[in-house]
Amino acid sequence: MRFTREQVLAALCGRIAQGRAVLAAAAGNGLVARVEEKNGADLIIVYNSGRYRMNGIASIAGNLPIGDANAIVQEMGQEQILPLVRSTPVVAGIYGVDPTRDMRHFLEELADIGYSGVINFPTVGKLSGPIRQELEQVGLGFPREVQRLHLAAELGFFTMAYCYCPQEARMLAEAGIDIIVSHVGLTAGGDVGVRTASPLEEAAERTRAILEAALEVRPDIIPLCHGGPIVTPQDVQKVIQTTPAVGFVAASSIERLPVEGAVGSMVQALKAVSL
User: Fold this and answer.
1) Residue 169 contacts by C-beta under 8 Å, 6 or more apart in sequence?
2) Cβ(42)–Cβ(24) under 8 Å?
3) pLDDT tens per residue, range 220-275
4) What one-character DSSP code corresponds to residue 245?
5) Taking Cα atoms as reference points, which of 47, 43, 80, 86 lies closest to residue 63?
């Protein structure tokens, strides 16, 4: 079922008004999406990285030049996620800088199959140094992602965006993006997660700076947090208490890490069965 931007924002703002945090949950397959919806996730997000991580490959593979990020999300939505999700808005991770697509046509196709929102993933915001400078110089940088999100809003999608610094947050706020997500790095832990992450206090400081920059431009933005050492419900609670964040985008923390733990524990328990 596709939801309008107004319906999604009304539901999220109603939850926030009740003092309840927003949960946007990634789904790398249909089973995860079913469980998330059954247990009350506010939004379900489909990323190309979800396919990778739920197949035992590090999430950062979603940022590499392998596969077709936009085609993967379209296919996952059409075949695995959207047929199973009945009452929760589903968000597509779009690679906005893709120069090989008519993005208006692509977004219309996403709407036709039932996506209600979009988020900029993969994103060049993850990149820095010479490669980022070169992408910006040839028109394949972060402003292009912002333009594509703005186009999506014109087509009736609600919009979410990852950003890595206050400057990007202000740019997104000025473009009218509905939900700003402060991204403080790949989620740590597990077999294919990064081994190190910044301390939680440092991640909270970065989150605060990013979200405050967006809120200075538009106080009505919905600010969420994500990534790095923000993994457990306790981590999320601490960040929400010390930053403007009113919720959390859960990806590896809600699908990969729980699956790793549950499968590992069951294998060990079954291997302990004696004859």
Assistant:
1) 163, 180, 182, 210, 211, 213, 214
2) yes
3) 999 999 999 999 999 999 999 999 999 999 999 999 999 999 999 999 999 999 99
4) -
5) 47
Q: Which two tokens stand for residue 68?
A: 């077709």
* Integer Cα distance of 152 and 71 in angstroms: 17
For the segment 162-180, the average pLDDT, to the nearest whole number, is 97
Give yes or no for a contact between 223 and 207, defined as CB atoms under 8 angstroms apart.
Answer: no
Angle at CA 59, nearest 5°, toward 58 and 62? 115
Q: Does domain 5-271 have CATH number 3.20.20.70?
A: yes
Are β-strands 179-183 and 90-94 bridged in parallel, bridged antiparallel, or unpaired?
A: unpaired
Count Cβ atoms below 10 Å from residue 46 Cβ, excluding itself: 30
Task: Give CB contacts under 8 A, 24+ apart, made by 130-135.
Answer: 135/97
Q: pLDDT digit string (tens) for 14-65? A: 999 999 999 999 999 999 999 999 999 999 999 999 999 999 998 999 988 8
Is 39 in a helix, a strand, or coil?
Answer: coil
Look-up: residue for tokens 């014109």?
154
**Is the pLDDT confidence value at 193 over 90?**
no
Whole-model pTM: value is 0.96
Cα 149 from Cα 119, distance rounded (Å): 8
- Strand (E) or helix (H) holding 250: strand 247-250
Buried/exposed 130-156: b ≥16 CB within 10 Å, e otherwise: eeeeebeeeebbbbbbbebbebbbeee
The three state secondary structure string of 113-162 is HCCCEEEECCCHHHCCHHHHHHHHHCCCCHHHHHHHHHHHHHCCCEEEEE
pLDDT at 151 over 90: yes
In whole angstroms, what is the distance from residue 123 CA to residue 120 CA? 6
| Cα distances (Å, whole numbers) of residue 263 to 16, 198, 250, 271, 274 | 34, 28, 20, 12, 19
